[in-house]
Amino acid sequence: MFFDNNNLYNKASKFAIRIVKVYEYLSNTKKEFILSKQLLRSGTSIGANIAEANGAISKAEFSAKVSIAYKECLETKYWLSLLKDTDYIDEKTFVSIHEDADELGKILFSILKSTRINKN
User: Fold this and answer.
1) How many CB atoms lie within 10 A of CB 69?
2) Cα distance between residue 5 and residue 15, in whole Å
């Protein structure tokens, strides 16, 4: 493991739980299955890639997994925006979850910057 950040892992895990609950709401209540499935995939992938980064055997592998987690975070924000703009989720829900995604993204980007700077 190249960083000890249980806080990031815990944030990503709690975020994934929120994403699963939004997915359940969208599929069960709104009968929306396409966008919500994309949101579920990308939103839960963030934590999975952080977990893989924690088990990386090289700095390059660590950086690659953090990079994937960051990109999944950006994708999740896209799906959230699309769900809001198509009235599947309300503004309050969007803002709350989007802020959490933004926080994760900032942390991941900061880690990426520091690992890439230390590499050079």
Assistant:
1) 26
2) 16
